[in-house]
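[step 3/7] fold_predict: job queued, chain A
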Amino acid sequence: MATKTREAVAAERQHRDEIVATTAELKKAEDAIERYVHAFEAGTVSDEMFGPRVRELGDRARTLRAHRDELTEAAEAAAADPPTQADLDVLHAELRELIRHGSEARRKAVAQAFVQRLVVEGPGVVRPTFLVRGGLPVSITEQNGQTAPDGAFRAVTGSVDLGGSNPVSRWPNPAAGP
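[step 4/7] structure written:
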């Protein structure tokens, strides 16, 4: 099994710390909303007095929940054991086969499934971050009746343009043949 880097361990710890802080901030917002609701129910405040504030707190709480969920996903990804060289070799072979014989829709779905995040750095400059968990995504392998490996995930629906994507430089171009 491959070993996590110090950076991955530090990233996981940072994400977990941010989750704790975000959860504490979310609790404050939810507690404030609860106080306003109780005061409204008791008739001590009106919607005109604090309605906008309660809506603002509600929006803040939704934003914090979404941020906490993103942090949780990032922490889980950082906590996952990195793929071994054998895992990468198997995945490489599966991708070569898909590129040679798979439909355009399947190739697009696989490309999208491995992209975790896209950062737009400027006009015409987009930097992808890939998340590799081992094997082809479940929805792709199910189309061929194959069984996906443990830890596989489902591809997000939709399509992506494969134009301009760069394969890992140490691997030969699968379309070029062996």
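[step 5/7] annotate
The CA atoms of residues 90 and 135 lie 7 Å apart.
The helical segments are 6-42, 47-79, 85-101, 104-114, 138-142.
exit 0
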